[in-house]
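step: validate -> pass
step: tokenize input -> pass
step: predict -> running
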Amino acid sequence: MQQVLESLAQELVPFGSPVYFAVLAAAVFARGMDLISTWTGTPTFLLEANPIARLLGWKLGIFFNLVMCVFISIWPLMAVVVITTSLLVAARNFKSAWIMRTMGENHYLTFILNQMSCASRSLILFCIFGEAGMFLCVGLALVLLSPPGSITMGIGTGVFVYGLVVGFFASLPLLKTRSKLS
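step: predict -> pass
step: emit ->
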């Protein structure tokens, strides 16, 4: 246990150091992009897949994310995982945000539900898990081929976590809506 604590202590950076502030800036930027991309697509959280984000709302969500950034920035490796995952989530959000905003959240939701009712459940799940699986493969490859504790390993872990997030959160609405449509 002592070795684990000593190893962890070596990976931490002093609070308030230049490295800490650089990591903090990157973490705030990444979490901010996730929040901005969410707000762009679904300002009322109607289309938000993460129930925790919906529960927190904007004010508590911003506060929670800032506090999280302050704490994770002392551990650069963990911060890189969060930064990578957050930027990938933001990119995915931005991909459809303009359509959501143009159509309106209610019309977009109706459109998606209508399309889901026309597709087979297996096709939808195949595509969701196909997308998630590609990220899982890239992330796992980076983790396995990187030196332990390296930034590359952190990026790979972030890509892997993103694959898990996509697979989990993208399939949640399917389970809810398909039962309502059946």
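step: describe -> The chain has one domain: 14-181.
step: cleanup -> pass
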